[in-house]
Design a protein that fits this description.
single chain; alpha+beta; 5-stranded antiparallel β-sheet; 4 helices; 13 strands; globular
Length: 271
């Protein structure tokens, strides 16, 4: 009888979801480990990097990833004129833990993010939601992330609508339909069209803010280049602000220890 019950539980845990998965994030935590401040240029409006909701929607043979910010998504640099996707400022990376097995998958986030994942939350796939066009993304991946390129997903289509950035991804590129047991992490970053030679289109956080750089970081390039992320159980509660600060603030520059972050799992966020 115990064996039968275990088999049933395993089956349920690995079925594809038939509804949207919704993860929420607190308002006003777009300060990374708690110290980051917005760039001084007026195009960087407060709340434009503040993730408040992330949705995963099944759409036939595709999956929609929808990241909603506190402020409207804008395109001050006319991205369409350089082959972009209709927004200019934000760049998001959606990491996916497909098996929730300790030590299985990739530990480090993509080059330039300066974060590692906890041992129980290594990732198998990452979806890049960028203003940059498909060709530019593919070129950067080949140059800077060749070792994990098979697990980096470039969406079929990326666009913005109101306060939301949307990426349409083929289920085939994820290795199959999304499962309710999968874990997710969304890292919000600033788009960099002229990145450092080793960074994958990510913009560094400086010690002092500038016209196009977030401030409050460390110029030694040891700080996490993450403005906002999911934390805790992704219910949007106030305690998740502290959880984000704890994870992103775990770096130690003198010891070359990077921030270590985890995933959130739909079993806790979608009860």
């Amino acid at each position: 009888m115990k064996v039968i019950l275990f088999g049933v539980v395993t089956l349920v845990a690995n079925v594809a979801f038939s509804k949207s998965l919704v993860f929420r994030d607190p308002v006003g935590d777009d300060r990374g480990p708690g110290s980051y401040v917005y760039p001084t240029d007026a195009v960087y409006k407060r709340g434009s990097f503040d993730l408040v909701k992330f949705e995963v929607r099944s759409k036939g043979s595709d999956v929609e990833f929808r990241a909603t910010m506190r402020a409207r998504i804008e395109d001050p640099w006319d991205s369409k004129s350089w082959g972009g996707n209709g927004f200019s400022l934000q760049m998001l990376q959606v990491y996916i833990d497909k098996d929730h097995k300790e030590g299985s998958g990739h530990r480090s986030a993509l080059p330039g993010m300066n974060v590692d994942f906890m041992k129980a939350s290594y990732w198998e796939k990452v979806v890049v939601m960028s203003p940059q066009g498909r060709e530019r993304l593919a070129s950067e991946i080949e140059l800077k992330a060749k070792d994990v390129r098979g697990d980096i997903v470039i969406p079929k289509r990326t666009y913005s609508s109101g306060k939301t950035i949307v990426a349409v991804v083929s289920k085939k590129d994820l290795g199959g339909a999304v499962q309710e047991s999968w874990g997710f992490q969304v890292l919000v970053q600033s788009n960099e069209g002229f990145p450092d030679r080793g960074d994958l289109l990510s913009r560094k956080v400086n010690e002092v803010e500038g016209p196009h750089r977030f401030g409050g970081g460390d110029d030694g390039d040891c700080d996490p280049h993450v403005i906002d992320m999911l934390a805790g159980d992704a219910l949007g509660t106030k305690d998740e602000v502290a959880a984000q600060k704890k994870e992103l603030g775990s770096f130690v520059c003198k010891s070359s220890i990077r921030s270590e972050i985890g995933m959130v799992y739909s079993s806790k966020s979608n009860k």
